[in-house]
Amino acid sequence: MKIKSIILAAGEGKRMKSRKPKVLHEVCGQTMLNHVIDAMYSLDAAECIVVIGHKGGEVKQTLSKEVKTVLQEEQLGTGHAVMMADEYIDEEGVVLVVCGDGPLITPNTLRKLIECHEKGQYCATVLTTELENPTGYGRIVRLGSQLKKIVEEKDSSDEEKEIKEVNSGIYCFDSQYLKKALPLIKNTNAQKEYYLTDVLSIIRNFGEKIGVYKTSEYNDIMAVNSRVQLAEVEAIMRNRINVMHMENGVTIINPDSTYIEKQVKIEQDTIIYPGVTLKGNTIIGKGCIIENNSKIVDSEIADSVTIKSSTIIESTIDSYSNIGPYAYLRPNSHIGKHVKIGDFVEVKNSTIGDSSKASHLAYVGDAEIGKNVNIGCGVVFVNYDGKTKHKTIVEDDAFIGSNSNLIAPIVIRKNAYIACGSTITREVPEEALAVARSRQMNKEGWVRRKGLQNKEEK
Ligand code: UD1
Ligand code: CA
Q: Which end of the chain is more exposed for a tag (fewer CB within 10 A), N or C?
């Protein structure tokens, strides 16, 4: 059977109090709308139509997958939004309608809804759940076991407000009945909107069967209307992601304080300490240790790497290397195997070869560093002349003494030594020692001549 899906994403989301359309707010690093689209894509043969409206251009730009979009110029209600997609609703088949503000929906729950719809041979089936606090959701009013109608909070009586079974805003329709019912919706309600929920009672009045699939997975249907709900949904999503990694063999010492975005991949036996943030397309290998408060964004970390309280952005680190504490790897840094990048070392747009070390307090920018190089404490790669950035090459086995400045562009050849405190402006040949500092001079008796000696001695 051919299943199409329509995602409603045209609303402004006034209760968010945001300049950004509601569906573009992110949950664990991805817009709510893209989470919903992902769930649709996980279903077989789901062609996806997104109804956009408020700041539709902005919404369109953020879509992560190929989907069709239709424009709802004025947001006259959820039923009106579906009408805008009418040309894509076939004469037969099944249409799934979901809201773009419900990022926790899972393919599993959607599959069960479709299954219930098909088994029961219903013309329309609504996904519901029971909530301890149903405030804000449309209530499911039943007649016996059948659905009588869905009533919005704002249109409900005190008695109806007591109902704990709520509308998820997710439905399965037989296309032909949806098409027939849509033009019959009226906006005679508290919000003067064309409610999609009314389609159900309209189809029932045709004398057709309406299904209700009540799920116990109440989290799945949670919708975001406010920032408070955004945080609630995020906590659930974050927990789902953390649980998935733990089930795959990753240790997360304190899941409550660990933020891992959806696309991140982590291999077995890696240990994640509290306060860690892993974002974007980050991949972490086996047996790594990621210590407290590290932040890793769009980076690839190989096996057995230790990262202590450091920030790593758009970079790669090979196996057995040690980073931090308090190191800062800026974009396009490539760290080899068995490398040590110690405390307060900043690396930017540089390659560092295997077994090299920068143990403390250094700036390495726009450099190509070979194997087994030692970069002493306080070394600065002087890459910027005020106008352009220049490159430094340090070949294998070179030793850069502490507190040296390497003024780029410059090449330090193999096995060369640079005396500490040097400011190097010319190429250093292989196996040479470069000393570029003024010679020390001791002026004997200078203190006494100036009368600066200890007072008691005077
Ligand atoms: C809707 C349901 C309610 C249900 C709840 C579940 C209706 C009338 N009410 O209420 O029964 O419990 O969802 O979360 O359907 N949208 C448009 N165009 C519009 C209006 C809305 O595209 O003209 C989109 C919004 O962007 C949003 C979704 O539809 O993604 C739901 O709209 P929203 O205003 O949040 O509906 P609720 O009041 O939450
Ligand atoms: Ca909503």
A: C
User: Where are any strands of DSSP class E within 203-352?
Assistant: 210-214, 251-252, 259-260, 265-266, 271-272, 277-279, 283-284, 289-290, 295-297, 300-301, 306-307, 311-313, 316-317, 322-323, 328-329, 334-335, 340-348, 351-352
| Residues forming a β-bridge with 323 | 307, 341
Q: How far apart are CA 368 and CA 354, in angstroms?
A: 12
Residue nearest to atom 35 of ligand 1 (CA): 225
Q: How far is the CA of 100 from the centre of ligand 1 (A)?
A: 9
Q: Is the pLDDT of residue 145 over 90?
A: no
Judged by its nearest atom, the ligand closest to the C-alpha of residue 23 is 1
| Cα dihedral sign, 187-192-196-198 | negative
Beta bridge mates, 362: 345
44 close to 3: Cβ distance less than 8 angstroms: yes
Exposure of 73 by Cβ count < 10 A (0-12 exposed, 13-18 middle, 19+ buried)?
exposed
Query: Is the distance from the beta carbon of residue 300 to the nearest atom of ligand 1 less than 6 Å?
Result: no
Q: Judge whether 69 and 60 are in contact, CB under 8 Å.
A: yes
pLDDT score of 295? 98
Known catalytic residue at 54: no
Contact 101, 224 (CB under 8 A): yes
Q: Alpha helices, DSSP H only, in 120-263?
A: 158-161, 175-181, 198-205, 227-247
Question: Which residue in this structure is represented by tokens 């760290």?
Answer: 335
Task: Tell me the domain boundaries of the chain.
Answer: 3-221, 310-434
State the pLDDT at residue 337: 98
Domain 310-434 listed as CATH 2.160.10.10: yes
| Assigned CATH topology for domain 3-221 | Spore Coat Polysaccharide Biosynthesis Protein SpsA; Chain A (3.90.550)
pTM of the model: 0.93
φ/ψ of residue 429, rounded to 5: -70, 165
Which ligand is closest to the CA of 192, given by its number? 1
The answer, yes or no, to whether residue 45 has pLDDT greater than 90, is no
Q: What residues have their beta carbon closer than 5 A to ion ligand 2?
A: 101, 223, 225
Q: Is the pLDDT of residue 46 over 90?
A: no
- Name the amino acid, one letter, at 227: R
CA distance 351 to 316: 9
Three-state DSSP state, 166: strand
pLDDT at 1: 58
Q: Is residue 304's pLDDT more than 90?
A: yes
CA distance 427 to 363: 19
